[in-house]
Amino acid sequence: MPYYWCEFCNRDFTTENGLRNHTSAKHPYCDDCYEQFSTTSEYNDHCNIYHSEEEEDSEEEEDSEEEEWPSCSFCGRAFNSDRGVQQHVAAVHACSYCNALVRDVRRHEVEEHLTCVDCQRTFGRPNDLGKHRASGVHSARNVVCPFCHVRFRLPSAVAQHLENGKCPCKPNMTRQDVKDFFRDQERRHNLEGAVLVPRITDGRSAGSAVPQRATAASWNGFAYACCVCNRGFQGLSQLNAHLITHESRDWRCFRCRRTYNLLSALVQHWEQSACGSHANPATKLVGRQRMLGYPAHG
To answer: Can the keyword Transport be found in this entry's annotation (predicted)?
Structure first.
């Protein structure tokens, strides 16, 4: 009768299947190393030393494959369900104007619908949106009056604050005082004509013939009359606003050479046009013309 012998424990078996079952149960074989062990404990020790990390990696890969969650195709964010993805896309990636699905909704609304991202106001032309953004309506109040230290959003607001005599520390400052101050600064720095059109008479600034502020004496019995054109107004504030139109256009842009009758108008021009896109006019009102290569005098 044939018999089969186990080379590890010298045990005999009458059938080949009996030997095979005995070997797989008592003397395991490592398929990775092609090595067979005499005992199960030796096999376990071998696996713990040489194959434990591989088993952990394979388990992690299996777990990661099993835990694939639905994700957003725009930003890659994962969710527990497809419904969560749909709700996320509708809330974050859908344009509120055309319902288009895009990765960056804010950029899409600005470029395609000319929308202000801060107030959601839309505009008909890109230039109008640019002026709205440059107006400072959404800016912080970081510009400070040098006299009373009140904070404003834009440099032009500070200029208006001074020109209108609203500064409590300089209540009597007029538009002519502002011009005289800048002319003095230009002369001090040898930059005459850098911002103001030169109007020098006998070494002094030529004063404006237009009154800086109208008074009750402008009343002619029917209206407050302009002393320059005799146009009548029902209120002093209206007349004072009108007097500005008669001011000489002494404020000049150092880039485009356009002139204005108010400092605030010139600064607004810088704030809202390409002439001031590369500089901060609030800090360089004097001297910019020469820096850019323009002659000192007009």
So the answer is: no
